[in-house]
Design a protein that fits this description.
elongated; about 130 residues; mainly alpha; single chain; about 70% helix
Amino acid sequence: MRGHHGQTYAFPVYPAWLLLLPFIGALGAYLSKRAGGARSTIVISGIFPALAFFVILLLTMPFTAFLEHGLDAAARSVFDSLICEPFGRLGVVAGWVLMPGACLMLGAQAYLFTSRKLTQRGVAGN
């Protein structure tokens, strides 16, 4: 997929992926609640994929920069070109951790809200 100024987007499915994440966050929260988790555990279970991405980025960013230090621009990876975007590493963290984390949190909070409302009405137990 090509954007303006002839740029090629590496991930054209990113918006669809973000729209799917609230359901994944709600599923994680549901499974944690079903296993008897406390509220904090339920929320952490809902946003766990974003936390995993954060740890992976913390480990790979310095390692990738070290490995690609001496290479010319044509030999660098897609990851390095993402880091060189206008917001640099902050943009990578925002795109791979903060935005997905917010979507996952939205799903986990929606699940907690609906489950609390159903419990108050006596429709669902637990």
